[in-house]
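User: My advisor, Dr. K., asked me to get a structural model of this assembly before our group meeting. I'm new to this, so sorry if the format is off. These are the inputs:
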Amino acid sequence: MEAISIKGTAKTPTVEFNAENGKVEIKGRSIPENSIEFYKPLVDWLDTYATSPKEQTEVNIQLEYFNTSSSKCILDVFKKLENIHKEGHDVKINWFFEEDDEDMLEAGEDYQSIIKIPFKMIETDEE
Amino acid sequence: MIFNFEEWFEKATKNDTILKYSGHISSEVVNKTLDDVELLLKEQGLSKKKIKRAYNAIVEGVQNLYHHSIKEPNSQDEEKFGAYCIRVHNDEIDIITGNYITFNVVQIIKDRIDQINILDKDDLKALYKKILSNQEFSDKGGGGLGMVDIAKRTGSKLQYTFFDFDEKYTFFELKVNV
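Assistant: The format is fine. Below is the predicted structure of the whole assembly, which you can bring to the meeting.
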């Protein structure tokens, strides 16, 4: 299936979804007014990917900012990944947060408590 | 006393204001605000954590205006109307937004904010997760999550004032301190 590759903007993240290597990445800022519009193709892509996923899917989420409109959409992404995991496929979620950004760490922990996939919290150096 | 927008705006923006706006609330205005405010916050010598928290609260506040503001009552102008003001004083940031609402939603907003304001950090976190995982979102992305998020991140109470305009409309001021 075709990969998704979207360049980030001031309000929307860089997205790389690749079925060939099983990598799913969302990086940057996610603060659009209408997040559903942005995330729908990503959620749809994961639906298709879920029909024949890689043995291991690696998910990298590295966000600097996200608004509440995006938070539900990001949860939808995780729910699709949770389904893949439930079907017995390996899914690894890496949640990156900047050093000292306890709010972003907490946000990752909030998702981790809702989604039944282990998260790896990874601290990165400040830019 | 009848509400006068110009007087309200003048008072709100009198001191320590780094950015203010009143007028149409369009997508372009939101974009420009978020670009400008980030640069201005960085010039204030605030900690990175404080800037991030303030920026998050400003995103939610300005996008709340975008989603929920209505036209100015008694005006020929049909565009959504709102105002905001960002003030910085002694390493503290005040974010003030103002918009007209119809009188019938005053109690709903008041109840929602009162409900948020009595919660402590752990309760806010629990409520945030509950709304996030259970509640259907409207097209506007609402569900009250924005205000819960602001309260959760900033750790401060949401201060509101409702100004009577006429029998149908009320002006809603929301102030958050970071």
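One thing worth pointing out at the meeting: The first strand of chain B starts at residue 17 and ends at 24.

User: Perfect, thanks a lot.
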